[in-house]
Amino acid sequence: MKTTSIAIEPDGNLRQLPEEQALTGWRDGQGPFWIDLEGDAVEEMVAWLLQLGLDPKLMDLLQTGEHDSKILPFDAAVYFEYPVMSEDEDRDPELFGWLCLDRLVVTMRERPVTDSPLAKAALPRLRLQEPNVTSLVSGLIIVHSMHLRRHANVLRDCVRRLADRMDDDPGSVPLADILKLKHKILVLDGVASDQLAAFDVLRAVDVPVLHMTQVADYFQIALGNSRATDRGIDRLDSGARNLQQRHESAQQDKTNRRLAMLTILSAIFSPLTLLAGIYGMNFEYMPELGYRYAYFIALGAMVVIGGGLYWYLRSRGWLK
Questions:
Q1: What dotted CATH number matches 2-249?
Q2: Helices and strands per DSSP (H, E), number in the chain
Q3: How far apart are the first and last CA of the chain?
Q4: What is the pLDDT of residues 142-171, one digit of tens each?
Q5: Which segments of the chain belong to CATH 3.30.460.20?
Q6: What is the second-level CATH architecture of the domain 253-315?
Q7: CA separation (Å) from 301 to 130, 148, 308?
Q8: CA–CA distance from 208 to each of 7, 34, 76, 168, 270 (Å)?
Q9: Mind giving me the DSSP string for 185-221?
């Protein structure tokens, strides 16, 4: 399991420090601190959390996974979770868990997530309004909402590029690309819906360790981002469906053209086949069979009939 420990400075800046130093400082009444846990071993995470002296009921919920609710407030702790986009596009979204204690925030996830605020380039730019747990939670949630909106913008650009390609050549966009795009939109829709539901409930939380009502105006930024993303996903879904309909229409047009060509060829060769069949019977009493130029006359008649049908169908626009 990978742990990252952060100290919140009095001016709101974040500073990385060793895990033992953070835990010792927290037990001595210092803080606030933020510790991030990354690993897929639930037992290892639970063993780490046991050292914090948490409420046994909360520990039971964390071990059994029987918490359907996204918000679990206790007397001296608040636990909540919501999905975030995974760093690996082929994986399902990651569940991001929060445990808020007095002067300590513990975040938990199985694998890396996209645009993590813990990145070396991102951490120095993150500054809190106030050096407390509530400000840290609201600030990180705003970061998550902005990252999700950025994902929606990337998919919007992808829809636009596919639409431009389809305008130039409807057959140049494979169906697999459209279906992959639709899958990404569905995944993003699920994450955005769950995040928005969690944020709506979280904004009303007001307990000793987490006063979200005190940062309602600041937290409104996260809600605004989430609602804008949710609305944008509806437009993305409509655009993806339109791309699929255009692709299916282009394939249907291509099939219709092929069938039309086969129909034309059948119309041209049907009378020629009839003539060839008649002459192929080789009846003894067919006067034209004994004529010196009968063979060439028959071939010429076939060419004239076939050419005439071709000219007629072309003049009527069947070959366009």
A1: 3.30.460.20
A2: 7, 9
A3: 66
A4: 989 998 999 999 999 999 999 999 888 888
A5: 2-249
A6: Up-down Bundle (1.20)
A7: 96, 72, 10
A8: 20, 17, 7, 60, 89
A9: HHHHHHHHHHHHHHHHHHTT-EETTEEGGGGHHHHHH
